[in-house]
Structure formats: C-alpha cells, structure tokens
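During the second year of the project, the team shifted from modelling isolated chains to modelling whole assemblies. The rationale, set out in the original proposal, was that interfaces cannot be judged from single-chain predictions alone. As a representative example for this report, we include one of the complexes processed in the last quarter. Its constituent sequences, exactly as entered into the pipeline, are reproduced here:
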Amino acid sequence: MVKFLKQSLASQLDVDLMSEKCGFALEQLMELAGFSVAQSISKVYPKKSNSRVYVLTGPGNNGGDGLVAARHLSHFGYKPKLYYPKQPKNEHYQRLLKQCFQCDIELEPDLDKGLDQCDLIVDALFGFGFKPPIREPFGNALKALGNTKIPIVSVDVPSGWDVDNGKVDDSCINPEMLVSLSAPKPCAKFFEGKYHFLGGRFIPRFLAKEYDLDLPEYPGSEQCVLLSKI
Amino acid sequence: MVKFLKQSLASQLDVDLMSEKCGFALEQLMELAGFSVAQSISKVYPKKSNSRVYVLTGPGNNGGDGLVAARHLSHFGYKPKLYYPKQPKNEHYQRLLKQCFQCDIELEPDLDKGLDQCDLIVDALFGFGFKPPIREPFGNALKALGNTKIPIVSVDVPSGWDVDNGKVDDSCINPEMLVSLSAPKPCAKFFEGKYHFLGGRFIPRFLAKEYDLDLPEYPGSEQCVLLSKI
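Output from the structure prediction step:
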C-alpha cells in the first residue's frame, strides 16, 4: 500500500516542502514530525514502565526531531534524558535544546550511564540524509546500541543503515520500533522489529501524488498510524 | 481547578514563551495551538455531517491559529474554506496561507455565501490581544455570526467579547464550543456553550507555576482536553 521514498527523493521532498512550492518553515515540520514520534511511543510503551527514555540526538534534522520528541514525551509524563554530543551552533537547534531544558530534560553525556539507567532508547542520530562514514562518537554509540537489550525506537531510519538498502552488516542496530516520517524509506523493507509507524502528517495531497506516494489513512486527528505489527 | 489568565498576563506569557526564557518560535506555538483547535473540533463534530467548515480568520495571531487549524482539518478530511479579508503582508502569514492553498483550501470572501454553505464556523477573528473598537469588515462579520444558527467554534476568545469581562452586549456571539489556548482567559467564565476545550499543550511546568496556573492533565498524547460539557 505504502510506496517507498528513496534517499534522493526524500531530500527533494524536503526541499519542496520548505520552498516557495509549499511554504513550510522547518520549525513547523520538525514540530509535527517530533510530535508524531512521541505519540507513536506513547501508543506502545506505557509511561509507567518505560518512563526513563534516553534520546540519542545526532547533529542534523533527525536529531532535531529527537529534541522535539523528547519535549513532547516530557509533557506526556515520561522522563527523557538526552545524549547530544555534537550540538549545532545555529539558533534553531539552540532553541530546541533550551526548550528541552525548560521542560526539565537533562543531558546525560555518559553513554554507558545513560543506557544503564533507561527503559527505552530513541535513536535520532541519523535520518534520510545519512551517508557514511560514521564519525565518532557516533560509531561508538551505534556499537553500544547494537549490543543493548533495551528496546530502541528509530526515527525515520535506523541509524547506521543504508537509507536505500538497509543493514550494511551484522553489527547494525535492530530497533523494536521504527517511526517513518512523511513516507517510509526503502530500508524500512528490511525492518524486523515489532512496530512500524508512519508519522509526519503534513504532505499535501498534490505532493503525495507528484511523488507517487500511496499514503495510508491516518485515524481521526492522530499524527501517526501503525503500518504493521509483526 | 483551572485558573484564568487575564489579558495582561496572557500577553506576558506569550512574550516569555518566545523570548530567551523559553526559546520558542512563533511557528512552533502556532502549529501546536492550531492543531489543538482542529483536534478539538474533530472530537465533537464528525466530518461526515460537518465537513464544510468556514474558518473566519482575523489579521493577527488568532487568525494564524485559524489558518493552521484549517490545514489540519483538511488533513483530517474536512473541507474548510477561509474568510480572510485582512491578510498581513509578513512572510509568516503569507506562508500559512500558501500552505492552506496547497491543501486545496480556498478563500470565500463572500461572507453570506460562506455562511450559507457551511456546517460549522470557526471564529479565529480576535484573540487575547483584542481591544475595541472593531473595524470593518469585522463588525459586519460578527453581526452575521451573532445571528446565525450554525454552530460556532471560537478560538481562545469569542470574538468581540471583552477578554477579561466577557460579553459586552446582547449582540455578542454565542459559540457552541470554545477552545482556550494555554489557559482559559477570564471571559471563559461567561461561556454558555456546550464544549469547553483547552489546547496549546506547550507550557513548561516552571512557567505554569510562575503564572500560578493550575492546568489540567491532558490524556495520553492528546493536544486538547475537555474542561466541561454543559
């Protein structure tokens, strides 16, 4: 039913959304994307048993989605902490981080400690723009995620996977949940976790048609929809 | 349970949210506020029987919330149209309007025709910043809303009401639903409609405390909460 949006087209879609063509601001799209991640998490992982969420945020837009998700999770009653080793200097990201701090979300730069003291991991390291090589400290972080038994929720793309071709080797992470944004990327075909959600309910119909996407119907006012449950 | 946020404090809260103190961008807050209005509507007015929504948008931020709500309603399957006689020239509003157009939302500048052909009215003319006098064409628009039997949903403040003291005379509009944003304004005490929702789930706890707000718990990941149902 859903078609896949390969890496090059995902980049083009992003440009179309934020150019004259559609007129969106990054702040709007990121707010809706991050919210949809938080909502997906709230549907699967009860805050009582999974309150301590460790959100690993990368240096780009995927990380920004993670910051927004962390803030909404805090409003929902979860207790997120952030691993955010490479913080972009630009105002947008500084603002997103401040918003987290003002919601009592703290940084936990000690990865081992963070993983040791959490019930759930959000992988917001790399998104559809990812291309190797992986620089440190993200290589180490992905190694740790590859070894943990704590459930991982990946935002849009399981970090370290090839966006179009999936896992590159056996050391790759195996998220329990994947929240695809806008439309699933081809690597989602190789996702073997339990819950595949789609979020980012903001693509105008004409644009979905132009990109030949066959997006599913979202229920009611929901910002996410469960695509499959293995 | 909920305390009221009078006009002067509502303005100050807005400043705090978007200043260094919290670091929000207008685009983020408006997206969440407008979404919460659309979600509230979807909970009460089924799209099958109330698909034709006429959104009356004023020249300020309340109008901006209306534009965002219209876009989300379109994603939910409603068929909104806009009455938007005074369109601000600044980029933010131009973008919000373009986003509506790209979701197949049209302008209906003929107020009589718009009211005649709709199932539901969204009043996003004036918000917490409102001070008289009312300039045309909004005086005429409010007169028409005062006489209609089509249900009206007011965004944050029933337009034309005094923000702190409620109705100014018998010609004032009587919305069936009120969606207060952030916290109810004092005029909400005089609201006699059926559904009073609270939306705008973005106030950090420390700020709610600082403003002595006693905000209700939102259920799950919902962006609105029903405060009373008469």
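Chain B touches chain A through 35 residues (CB under 8 Å). The CA atoms of residues 23 and 54 of chain B lie 33 Å apart.
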